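Input structure tokens:
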């Protein structure tokens, strides 16, 4: 058997990514030493890792790969062809959606020009109180996988709270700890509000932490209503507003899901209502 470092070198995959695959159930170590916590892999698992990498390079999502590798048999030609045809249709749909977004942006720019409005969102400044949350923090490899990780992490969070009979409150909150916008290695903390009495509570599970989000004297905030895949434009607009008004941002950016959980019964909300909050200070 190979230690995770040796297996990482053989498979040409970082140890961080192997730990991601372990947490998602895509590639679980053959053995974990109960005393040292060292992960060990077998040579047979190298073929499984290569299979995951190959499917990922073809553009399949982690969810699709997870569904495929549940079967111990090798992927048949017919199965692979079916998945690629599905991916082809998805890419075509994404291209159409991008074209639609481009048209919507052009229309919005024209509307702003007609109304002599310099900004597409109403931004306010306000103070926010402290908030006790349960949270899981993780680095997401790429922005395109945000939906998969979001659903997976919140599932772990809610299951951990339920196991310890802790009632989650509203809202869900996502914290983006990046100092600047990036599409790779996104440091995200998925949170859910809990009772004030739990702020010093011991972790409910391996990854869950309880902590208090600090009060902020001044945040810039805007309300966004629309699909999740367009919400980043609202967040970027908020950052632009902060710069235009001579403020300095103080990360992390907060995303509050005002309309409820992002995923209900495995389905993503189609038109969520979100509030983006960014702590600021005057330059």
């Amino acid at each position: 058997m190979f230690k995770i470092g040796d297996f990482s070198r053989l498979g040409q995959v970082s140890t961080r990514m192997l730990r991601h695959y372990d947490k998602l159930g895509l590639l679980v170590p053959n053995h974990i030493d109960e005393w040292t916590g060292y992960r060990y892999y077998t040579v047979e698992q190298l073929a499984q890792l290569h299979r995951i990498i190959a499917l990922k390079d073809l553009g399949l999502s982690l969810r699709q790969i997870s569904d495929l590798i549940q079967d111990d048999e090798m992927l048949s030609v017919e199965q692979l062809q079916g998945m690629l045809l599905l991916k082809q249709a998805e890419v075509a749909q994404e291209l159409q959606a991008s074209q639609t977004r481009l048209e919507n942006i052009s229309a919005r720019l024209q509307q702003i020009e007609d109304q002599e409005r310099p900004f597409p969102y109403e931004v306010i400044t306000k103070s926010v109180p402290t908030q006790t949350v349960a949270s899981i923090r993780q680095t997401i490899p790429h922005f395109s996988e945000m939906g998969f990780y979001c659903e997976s992490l919140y599932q772990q969070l809610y299951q951990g709270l339920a196991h310890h009979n802790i009632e989650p409150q509203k809202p869900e909150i996502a914290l983006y700890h990046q100092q600047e916008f990036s599409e790779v290695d996104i440091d995200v903390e998925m949170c859910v509000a809990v009772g004030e009495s739990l702020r010093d509570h011991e972790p409910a599970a391996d990854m869950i932490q309880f902590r208090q989000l600090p009060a902020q004297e001044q945040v810039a905030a805007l309300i966004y209503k629309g699909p999740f895949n367009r919400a980043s434009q609202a967040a970027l607009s908020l950052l632009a507003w902060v710069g235009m008004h001579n403020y300095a941002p103080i990360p992390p950016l907060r995303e509050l899901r005002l309309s409820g959980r992002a995923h209900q019964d495995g389905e993503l909300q189609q038109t969520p209502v979100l509030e983006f909050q960014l702590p600021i200070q005057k330059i």
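DSSP finds seven helices and 14 strands in the chain. The mean pLDDT is 82.
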